[in-house]
Write a structure and sequence with these properties.
The protein has 317 residues and is α+β, with helices and mostly antiparallel strands. The chain has helices spanning 15-32, 39-47, 94-106, 122-129, 169-179, 191-198, 265-279, 294-302; strands at 6-10, 54-60, 63-71, 80-85, 113-117, 133-144, 158-162, 208-213, 216-226, 248-256, 284-290, 306-315. It has a twelve-stranded mixed beta sheet, with helices on both faces. It is elongated.
Length: 317
């Protein structure tokens, strides 16, 4: 007997509901090879969430068959959503049911953005079929760490050390938000965002490099390793899992203060992080970059990276 799906809307989820959503996401990830929710959403699910965010739980009988997260906290980008439908429940247009519920919730005055992780994601076809148009694309790029990593060439007066928990958060945040002032995801971080990541099992200050000049923080490279202690692949927005494969490194965030940009500090910091990841015996490293950031793409290509996959943001028309 096929039951009619029902949707329950929550501003916050209970602990049991969070566990059920994470289990659903893990099921989707194992089936698709791509994690359907961004790091931001997963972190806020686990650690309490943005108060204005909305959660949509889609039940088939008593079974959680689908989930959607609606983020209304970005004053620039507006409302954005991500969703997942359990593989065994697909083929019944449940993704469309979730999107229709989100659209009813946001109202006619808001143009919804819908993220699809991975170019083969079912969310891509769903967005297109509902009249959403491709608006923003994030490239995932990868590089072999078996290939040589050149020595960094540092600008004059630069010293490099690793991050100290409890000491460097505020100084790092200032440089990060200056470096990414025009970036829709990275440029509005708070101390709470930093501390959430410090609680994650992948966090390792030994892989978090800070560049200083005359005692002032001017740049950084925060690396990450996936596939160790059950961690998965999460980019700044993108989320490709590494289920069943070797651990993989990530150029999580590289940032340079605007006063030092254009002097080669970014590539030098990138190479320092690659050296660290290579020293850990990793075979590959990945990163995310906006498709429109052609200067960064060219830099990464010179460092041996190549396009691997994409995440796409679709805009309601």
């Amino acid at each position: 007997m096929v039951t009619e799906p029902r949707i329950e809307r929550r501003s916050r989820l209970s602990d049991d509901e969070v566990r059920a959503v994470i289990a659903l996401v893990d099921d989707v990830t194992a089936h698709d090879g791509v994690r359907p929710l961004s790091e931001h959403v997963v972190l806020h699910l686990r650690y309490g969430g943005d108060a204005p965010a909305r959660n949509f739980l889609l039940y088939d009988g008593d079974v959680l068959a689908g989930y959607a997260h609606l983020d209304t906290t970005d004053a620039v980008e507006g409302a954005s959503a991500e969703l997942a439908v359990r593989p065994v429940h697909r083929g019944r247009a449940l993704g469309r049911v979730l999107v229709d519920a989100i659209l009813a919730d946001t109202g006619a005055g808001t143009r919804l953005r819908l993220w699809a992780h991975g170019q083969s994601s079912a969310a891509v076809e769903l967005a297109r079929s509902m009249g959403f148009k491709r608006e923003r694309v994030l490239w995932q790029m990868r590089r072999s760490l078996f290939a040589p990593v050149p020595e960094p060439q540092w600008p004059d007066g630069i010293t490099v050390r690793t991050f100290v928990v409890g000491q460097d958060e505020q100084a790092w945040l200032v440089v990060n938000n200056r470096a990414f002032a025009n970036h829709p995801d990275q440029g509005t971080w708070t101390i709470a965002d930093v501390k959430m990541r410090e609680r994650e099992p992948w966090f390792d200050p030994a892989g978090f490099f800070l560049a200083e000049q005359d005692g002032r923080l001017v740049g950084f490279h925060w690396t990450k390793v996936h596939g160790v202690h059950g961690t998965t692949v999460h980019g700044v927005h993108g989320t490709h899992d590494n289920h069943g494969h070797e651990p993989i490194g990530e150029v999580y965030v590289v940032g340079v203060d605007p006063s030092l940009q254009g002097k080669g500090l970014g590539p030098a910091l990138t190479l320092r992080g690659l050296q660290h990841l290579r020293s850990r015996g990793l075979a590959q490293v990945m990163l995310y970059v906006d498709e429109t950031n052609t200067n960064a793409i060219r830099t990464y290509e010179r460092l041996g990276f190549a396009k691997w996959d994409v995440d796409v943001c679709f805009l309601q028309q």
